[in-house]
Write a structure and sequence with these properties.
Blueprint: E1 6-9, H1 23-35, H2 55-69, E2 76-81, H3 84-97, E3 101-106, H4 114-127, E4 132-136, H5 147-153, E5 159-164, H6 169-179, E6 184-187, H7 193-199, E7 203-206, H8 213-224, H9 228-245, H10 250-260, H11 277-290
Parallel strand pairs: 1-7, 2-3, 3-4, 4-5, 5-6, 6-7
Helix pairs in contact: 1-2, 2-3, 3-4, 4-5, 7-8, 7-9, 8-9, 9-11, 10-11
């Protein structure tokens, strides 16, 4: 089974005004990220605006990412739906395209009980032969994964990772203590990645790594080397990105940052809007200070 670890940027979804995926822009971004040292790529994460895209657009983004990666790093494709049957169909189609793993997201309109939440993720993992990363983000999900559900899912032979965006690092430690080697933890940008690495995390999956890939990889390398003083010094510097982005729409921020860096990724999908000129200046200032 593929070993996932390190920095996995949550890719943006470059969409033009006609709704077409800008595969050339996405391909260039993926290539540059890989050359910067990232350890994997995640299309259709939160930064990828998965909730705003149709099935054709999602498939095009996953395919373009896989083609750009050319097997150099694993591609973990996001799967999200309110319906189990649809999520399973997505997972199967992305595996057929060549994805190395699935990031499983539960969208819920009506609240769900633990057994229903567990069955959703289990069905996805049962449907594929590649590793599954379960994703939890209580800020945006109507139905969250409890520690009991995570512990039961961790026993599934293909559910070996969790990406937790709860902002609660204590929850991550509880997952590690409860599940042991059954599941590996990726943090989100909402956590402090160096702290998560210190307590036993294997990396982070996050949108900001799209615009600061080299710095993100450097932070990971310092953590792996046990150079915690240097790691925390760099982490304090990089945390400015997270502070800035917490103020604005995530996709709009990352797309603005990439536009500043010369990638024509377009605006976020409506009804989201691009950053104002003043807000864009905030992103420009942070990127300038980070080099």
């Amino acid at each position: 089974m593929t070993d996932f670890h390190g920095v996995f940027p949550y890719l943006v979804s470059p969409i033009d005004s006609d709704g077409q995926v800008r595969t050339d822009v996405l391909g260039r971004l993926c290539d540059d990220l890989i050359k910067s040292g990232v350890h994997g790529l995640t299309p259709l994460g939160s930064t990828g605006e998965f909730a705003y895209l149709n099935r054709r657009q999602r498939a095009a983004i996953v395919q373009a990412t896989i083609e750009a990666a050319q097997g150099r790093v694993p591609v973990v494709a996001g799967v999200a739906s309110t319906a189990t049957v649809d999520a399973v169909a997505q997972a199967k189609s992305y595996e057929k395209l060549g994805a190395d793993g699935i990031l499983a997201v539960l969208e819920a309109y009506f609240p769900l009980k633990d057994a229903q939440i567990e069955s959703y993720f289990t069905a996805i993992a049962d449907a594929v032969d590649i590793p599954v990363v379960i994703y939890t983000n209580p800020q945006f999900q109507r139905s969250d994964l409890t520690l009991d559900v995570v512990a039961r899912l961790a026993r599934h032979p293909r559910i070996k990772y969790i990406k937790d965006a709860s902002t609660n690092t204590g929850r991550l430690l509880s997952i590690m203590n409860r599940c042991g080697d059954d599941i590996q933890v990726f943090s989100a940008s909402a956590h402090i990645p160096a702290a998560v690495m210190l307590i036993g995390g294997v990396g982070w999956m996050a949108g900001p790594a799209c615009i600061i890939p080299k710095q993100s990889v450097a932070l990971y390398d310092l953590c792996k080397a046990g150079r915690w003083d240097d790691a925390l010094q760099l982490q304090r510097k990089l945390w400015r990105v997270n502070e800035a982005f917490a103020r604005f729409n995530l996709a709009a921020c990352i797309k603005a940052g990439l536009s500043i860096q010369g990638y024509e990724v377009g605006d976020p999908v409506a009804p989201q809007v691009a950053l104002s000129l003043d807000d864009r200046k905030v992103v420009e200032a942070v990127l300038r200070d980070l080099g």
